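Cast an eye over my tokenised protein here and flag anything odd:

===
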Amino acid sequence: MARALWKVTQRSVLLWLLAAIGCLTTARAAPADDPLDILDYQIDAEIIPATQTLVARAKVTLDTARPVQSVVLEFNGALEVKRVLDESRRPLQFTQDRLRDLDLRIALPRATTPGTPFVVIVEYAGQLLSAEGGVLASKRLAYVGTDGAAYLLYGGRWFPFHGYAADAATFTLNLTVPDELTVVGYGFQSKQPMTGPGVPSLEPEPRPSPPRPASPRPARPRRPGAMSLPLALVAPSLAASEPQTPATLPSGSGPRVRWTFASMRRALFGNFAIGRYQAQTWRQGDTEVRVYTRPGNEARAAEYADLAAQALARYEQSFGRYAYGPTLSLAEIDDESLDSSTTAGVTLLAGRVFQARTPPRELLCREVAFQWWGQGVLLKSFDDAWLSQGLATYAYLLVEEARRNEGEMRELARDILERALAFESQSSLRRAPAELDDQSAAYRSIMFYKGAFVFRMLRGVLGDETFFRLLTSYYAQYLGQNVSLADFESLTTQIAGQDMRWFFALWVDSTGVPEFVPDYKILRVPGSGYRMRGTLEQNLEGFRMAVDVTLEAKGGSERATLQFNGREASFSLSSASEPRDLLIDPDIKLLRISDELRVAVVVRRGIQQIEDGEFAEAQQQFESAIRVNRRSSWAWYNLGLLYLSQRNYEKARDAFDEALDGDLRPRWVESQAALKKGNAYDALGQRDRAVAEYRKVIELGDDAAASQQAQQYLERPYRPEP
């Protein structure tokens, strides 16, 4: 009884100490002063399709910046830790939270010595069937299917790691799978047939029992009442209170192959796809772009490989050499996961991405850019995500510069601007990673689109030569290293040759955008036409940027650049004929707001709510935009799309009518509204009217995609999906 009580008491003390020490460390992204650093992984793993199980052993080498007596690692709750050992295979005490924090807390036998690496060995197994155990309730981030199709995403925490998106390490992974399957991952080394367990036992082979020794002398009786207290009770130790039973890890059967991946350079690895793939290869310079698709989507592979190669070429020209050569892999996974996920050398894409009507250029270009920003140059913590997500989205604009004319680039810039403004007031670029859900529409608006637009403005402030010198220097200096917002600001100041604190304070640290209000008089100048004199005011005290203005007149236009250093700037513009309008920022170089943009931003929110399945709320947004501007073709068009998706064809047709009678902005809305109006007529059984609308689209001829669809509908009527 006393012995049992002692065991319970000692274990309770240990678990209490684990919890107390563990609460000092977060399982989220590591803060800048976090002491833990993972140096290397040695992982043996096997997927077993018959039971949808992952079995693994991870030998993790770590170091600390200051003495600690426990470590906390992020870990998938669907995987059960069987035991934890030190380098000498002695058991370590641990607790695993599989429901709330999704972490693994390991007590060390003694405080660590900074600069002296130590090892923990974690053995674990579990079924990967659904999103359960992951950080996202509705998305699978690690999965093993009964047909052998499987994927392991870094974000799925299928191996114990630390410091999300920040703590890179060297690694070796031996992954055993059925022999008919292909494994896609970074750092491929070899594959070979496997006969034994995918995760070999650590236990030595049994040896013959030695002869029994002679019976020892009886111990001297203790004096009644005397008791020798264990050291752990006097000064509680974090060593295991009792030996852990050697784990019996399951193993697959039948012909199997062990795939080995490794990297001797630090990398954020972790994305692996397993399946019966067909591969196509596209070479760009020294790099092979490989696209792995499942049966049925192979026809798109060449198109996607070509786009990825275009992005790769542009980024090597603008930033520097791709760091994870000689291969960049894109692999298809199922639709129950994220649209996309990128780690070093590998991007995983949901099947729906391959089934899109046109290649998702923005998504593909951004994912390729992550190889430079987020993988090549690492983050010190997830709080620095603007340097990855914002810059990767801006990189997409660089790809588009090479294929679009000036008018098309203005349209694209306007699109990015509207997306950036949709939730701009909710958080700053610096605070959004801590304050917002990174899967939310607000987070994407701020980090991706405002983030990209801020880099666009930085280019405008510095000029092309200095801006691209900044990016190439940034990549060369920090390749393979972790960087913070403060590091990038310091480098920007150095390269620019001027203190750039004002820029980062205004656009990275703060919310709010300028709204420009002109105040002017038009004077008739005898013999020389007209002169417009006035001031342009805005609402931000720290605004120190150039603003283009254009005076449009009947006979032409005149442009001037105003240099702001505060709230207002003066201008004087001339024209030979009567002035018609004053355009502010005509090339959309600035993150700003106006009455027109307010309407567009409301529509953008409605579009996002449709994507999130919030249809009633989306309708309210569109109707609110229409109340502000009755002639907004953009608002009417999106309201029509909503009605069309709900099979409310009469209202859809009327909304498209209003769009065609409106301001016809953006430029392409006329063709698209006529096309969708034809769809509504087809759905109502009014074929003659539908044909008339499709012919109008072809006659307009200003949208190639719409014209192509119209031709298809002339040959075969539109029919709603069942």
